[in-house]
Hints:
The chain is of the alpha+beta class and about 350 residues long. About 30% of the residues lie in helices and about 25% in strands. It contains nine helices and 15 strands. It has helices at about 20-35, 80-100, 115, 135-150, 200-215, 230-235, 245-250, 265-275, 295-300; strands at about 10-15, 40-45, 50-55, 60-70, 100-110, 155-160, 165-175, 190-195, 255-260, 280-285, 305-310, 320, 325-335, 340-345, 350. Strands 8, 9, 10, 11, 12, 13, 14 and 15 form an eight-stranded mixed beta sheet that branches. Strands 1-6-5-7-4 form a five-stranded mixed beta sheet. Strands 2-3 form a two-stranded antiparallel sheet. A hairpin with a 2-residue loop joins strand 14 (about 340-345) and strand 15. Helix 2 (about 80-100) packs parallel to helix 4 and helix 5 packs across helix 6. The chain is globular and about 60 Å long. About 45% of the residues are buried. The structure holds magnesium ion (MG). Magnesium ion binds near residues 95, 98, 260 and 262.
Amino acid sequence: MKRKRSADSESVAGSRTERGGELALLARIRARAAAAGSSPSVRLGIGDDCALLRVKPGEEIAVTTDFSIAGRHFELAWHPPEAIGHRVLARGLSDLAAMGARPLAALLSLGVPAKLAECSNSRGAKFGEPRQQCWIDRFYDGLLALAGKFHTPLAGGDLAESPIAAADIVLLGAVPRGKALLRLGARPGDAIYVTGSLGGAASGLEIMKGLAGAEKMPGAVGLRIPRKLEAALARHLYPQPRVRQGLWLSKRGVATAAIDLSDGLSTDLQHLCDESRVAAEVNAVALPISAGATLTQALHGGEDYELLFTARPGARVPRTIAGVPITRIGQVVKRPAKRPLVTLISPKGREALEAQGWQHFA
Ligand SMILES: [Mg+2]
């Protein structure tokens, strides 16, 4: 394996001195990425200047990039490293799902403080001596487990020593030409559906905050999650991107528009309305609220990574797609002259549903 300073499919940048630790780390990541599974989509993965991907005739390539930064998108002191790795990939996969694209490969640029890459015993460990798992290994454990589940090989990336932990992931997907699900395309009269349930990630985050406050000695390797809280935290720590549901929708041509719920229903539905030049009504009582979550969390909490899609009123939308429930939550209406774009209808009456989800620089 060669080393270069440039950002290519296998380089290690950011260090002036040759360090065995880095090369060992890179070799380990390469071996682990290979062990996590190959795919006919990746003709050449980690090891050369570029990865080579293969698509089928008549396919278009969907590309998305997502930046995750310590202190912004995750907390080193709270989140188990496996969950951070999982979430980094889940965000990208969810964007592919929203387009109805088949994952081809992921590319990850990872910057970490040196202490997170220190694995005592990682080199020269005597036979039979357990290697102490370091943060970076556990990060890849989480990322590669999800990659394996969705047949998304890690085909390259970059690794650098950095004052803060940050992960930038690129996801590449393929979709038959003209079949991608777009935000544009919803028409008045369409019904609005969501996959799964909403608010679980936000309610999990609240539990995490409580745990972090109760923890006496916060470390830099994540909180130990009590067994009895694992289920309540699952939606926050290990969200499941709806790749199979997105693929189903694009194959069947059922959806007129789609978006993934990363920033929260109130925000993402506005994005869809903006792109489609329509407005929407959401029926509060119809919302599939996650166990333990509140209506507010279901409406505004982000990071559920469910899909929201619209379909013509007569379209045959099944109750479940690939094992995940599908719920009709409202309808698309004509765009009014003035806001609101999204109206919440509840037993109390009608009210404007303002975007209160996550916004940077807000
Ligand atoms: Mg998205």
